[in-house]
Every structure is written in structure tokens, then in C-alpha cells.
Amino acid sequence: xxxxxxxxxxxxxxxxxxxxxxxxxxxxxxxxxxxxxxxxxxxxxxxxxxxxxxxxxxxxxxxxxxxxxxxxxxxxxxxxxxxxxxxxxxxxxxxxxxxxxxxxxxxxxxxxxxxxxxxxxxxxxxxxxxxxxxxxxxxxxxxxxxxxxxxxxxxxxxxxxxxxxxxxxxxxxxxxxxxxxxxxxxxxxxxxxxxxxxxxxxxxxxxxxxxxxxxxxxxxxxxxxxxxxxxxxxxxxxxxxxxxxxxxxxxxxx
Length: 254
Known about the structure:
3% strand; two-stranded antiparallel ribbon; 64% helix; 10 helices; 2 strands; 2 domains; mainly alpha; single chain; Rhomboid-like fold
């Protein structure tokens, strides 16, 4: 059991018990999209309420199975951000059905499961304990079912759009984390190539950017070249640091 998974399990169970003891709590904390301006906190609090024991059980079971591994992979700070953003994404997409009352951690737990499927797409999940389905296939099936249900093709009181909102928010957040991580790794490679080492002797004159072949360069490398060109245009070649000149020298030699 990881830190935030344990805390979320406890928080949901405690809120469920309080809701039974004090019925006014669900009425105050449930999410009604059409009343979000009057009760903005409900876009957050709704994900800690549940309509019944089975609703709570299945959401917590999903969190228990998939959450710890995802939290270990992402780290606790990013995991709790993923969980909360997925729940908020569920609230946001629920505006497609503005007159409903929404409770449950499904949007948040769907986001956790999407992260699991993105990290381990070929892991097999046993549906009802007997039917093995790969995680990536289960995401596809539940997405299609939620789209079908969201259009009113199936009955029941399931918040299908909240499920899809959880998927969408989790996907966007994980893509952002990947992009930020790639940028940090690129900067670290640039630092490792120059910092702490003697920079090569390069011309103190203006660099010839047109002589640098841009074909095949990584997008982040191209972004750095464009930044340095703009710096030279605005401030002159003397504004370049030794490490920036070393970087341009390497680019000219490739």
C-alpha cells in the first residue's frame, strides 16, 4: 500500500460513513453541474461521495489494485495530482448532462486506470475474476461503452461522461508530464556536455547559423538554436555565454 492510495481509501470510507450518519452531507457536497457557480466546491467534493456500498466497493477496489503501482511509477506528488485532475475532468465533462446529480470517485479512478494501461498496456486484467483482458483493450472497451452510454443508448444512473472526463484529464496530464520530462532530460544532456568541462575554443565573432544543418535534429535542439539566434539578433554575439558558443560550435561540426 502506497501513501496516497491509503489516504484516499481512508478518506472515501470515512466520507461514506459520515454520509450515512448525516444525510445533509451528500446534499451539500454532491456535484450538480448547473449549480456549479453557487456551489463550486462540489466539483472537488463529489469524488469523495458514493451512492451505495457497492458503488464505494468497486471504486475502491480499482484504486487498491491499480493505484499503488501507478503511484510508485509516477511518485506520490504526481500521483495525487493525477487523481485530482481526473476527478475534476470528470466534473468538467459532466456539463454535457447539466441536470444530473453526480457522486463517486469513478472519474478519478478511471484516470488512475488509464495511467496503468499506458505504463503497462499488455498486463491482463481478470474481469469478474475469470475473463482476461489486456489493460489497453479494457480502456478501449470502457471508452466505447461510456460513449454509447453517454448518448443515452443504455439506461441506468451511471455517470458515463464523468468516466470519459477522467480518461481525458489523465491522458492530457501524462502527456504534459512526458513533455516536461523530455525537456528536462535534454537540458541535462546539454549541461553534461559542457558544464564542469573546459569549453572548446571557438570564434568570438558572430556565429553562422545558416551553416548549421538542421535536418535530423531533435525538436528541442532546434528550439535551442532558434533561441540563440534570437538572442544574437537582439543583444549581439557578445551576449553569448561560453557554453552557448560551445553548443553552437558542436552544431557546426556535426
